[in-house]
Write a structure and sequence with these properties.
Layout lengths: L1 H21 L7 E15 L8 E15 L2 E15 L4 H4 L11 E19 L2 E12 L16 E12 L3 E10 L16 E12 L1
Antiparallel strand pairs: 1-2, 1-8, 2-3, 3-4, 4-5, 5-6, 6-7, 7-8
Length: 206
């Protein structure tokens, strides 16, 4: 997963650099910026409290307008979300460690969304859809039940809206995880753990 993450990062940087060189004198084809905001996330899985909890995200992006009404956008985003295990977590997964019950967990990811930008009647408002590749950068050894509680990577789908004002941009998107991020091999419960988040962001475009 980490090899896939870094391969995607290298390809994205190479693609942006190539397009930047070709369109260096025509700024309307290429736009850079920074963004940040709220990250409402949860870990969808048995043994974790339901409901979204507040976190944050921050990062940068590059937009390439390929043809009228359509373009692509790559981002490099650091995001942090919180979750909490239920009071019977150790019984559900037979961990034998009572400290795993009601435990607060912070999960931090470095993510690369690769999105299609589709104009919705105006270049100011865009529909954004695409995959997201993430690497877990926080400590995976958060539960006493296992050396590694979470896998190091996550693959997600992203869908949302982007409002592009002259300088400021506003975005809202939903991110849903496709793969099981559980990495506890010694438990008998085989339920999946999948990430979900709602991101509300504000940024500046150059």
């Amino acid at each position: 997963m980490k090899k896939l993450f870094f391969a995607v990062a290298v390809l994205m940087i190479a693609a942006v650099s190539t397009v930047s060189t070709v369109n260096a004198q025509t700024s309307k084809f290429l736009r850079f910026g920074v963004k940040g905001g709220a990250n409402l996330g949860k870990l969808d899985g048995t043994g974790f409290q339901d409901g979204f909890k507040l976190g944050y995200h921050i990062g940068g992006f590059a937009q390439v307008n390929l043809v009228k009404g359509f373009g692509v956008q790559g981002e490099l985003i650091f995001s942090s979300t919180k979750t909490k295990t239920t009071d019977d977590f150790s019984e559900i997964y037979n961990t034998g460690n009572l400290e795993d019950n009601g435990k607060k967990i912070t999960m931090s990811y470095l993510s690369i969304p690769l999105l299609a930008n589709i104009d919705l009647g105006t270049p100011r408002l865009k529909l954004q859809v695409g995959p997201q590749f993430s690497a877990l950068v926080s400590d995976k050894k958060v539960l006493g039940a296992a050396k590694e509680a979470f896998k190091g990577g996550d693959i997600s789908g992203v869908a949302g809206l982007w409002l592009q004002l002259p300088i400021v941009n506003v975005s809202a998107r939903y991110v849903i995880g496709f793969n099981d991020v559980k990495d506890i091999n010694s438990v008998t419960n085989t339920s999946n753990w999948k990430n979900q988040s709602i991101q509300l962001g504000v940024g500046v475009s150059f």
